Every structure is written in structure tokens, then in C-alpha cells.
Amino acid sequence: MMVLFLLLVLVAVILGIIGVAASGLGYLLAIGIAVLVLDVVIAGVRLSRRAKRRPLR
Length: 57
Fold this sequence. Notes:
mainly alpha
């Protein structure tokens, strides 16, 4: 899980840097932002599911 999260963050950062640096490739910045947002949402859903499974003591 953590490896996938870090990999998607790395891909989002790389796409964002390329999108900003290269002229005419602004769509890569938008794709990078979308990947980052999707990654955070997936991590949040998995974290909330894991928290619900713990028994109350």
C-alpha cells in the first residue's frame, strides 16, 4: 500500500515538473495534479476502512 502511494506521488511530481518546465505541455501538470488528488483520496479511503475494523476496548 505504502509503495503504491509513494510511487503515485512520485509520478505526480514528475509530471508536474515536466508540465511546468516544458512549453506547451501544461496538460501534464493537470494530469499530475489529478493523479495526486486521486492518490490522496485512495489513501484516505483505505485509512478510514482500516480504522473502522479495530475493536473498541
